[in-house]
Amino acid sequence: MKRILFSIMIGLIATMGYGQDIKGKWLTEAGDAQVEIYEQNGKVNGKIVWLQKGPDTKDVHNKDKKLQSRKLMGVNILSGLSKKKDKWEDGRIYNPKNGKDYKCSIWLEGNKLKVRGYIGFLYETQTWTRK
Fold this sequence. Notes:
mainly beta, eight-stranded antiparallel beta barrel, 1 helix, 8 strands
């Protein structure tokens, strides 16, 4: 009986821990890209790992003309996020659709990832789903 209770407790703890893990692959709200979120040097980043338009899609809207010929696959669109309570904040998000970079924070709501980009006091929030 003790082994069964112990196994149940371990299972519940593992499930709760997974619920707070943002690492992994996420489909963007528009469904046109997949971003892999990972941790490096204590910061959370996210790189493009799939594009609906295909792997040869270029970063044509980038403000830096030298980067307009690079492929978007592998580009970090999320960078420098630090965990603060139940959110990851003080990072940046790059929007390849307009070539602009914004302040960013992300957090989990159930099994969905909320991704918020800021310009001053204005913001837009997207909901990404786990893949």
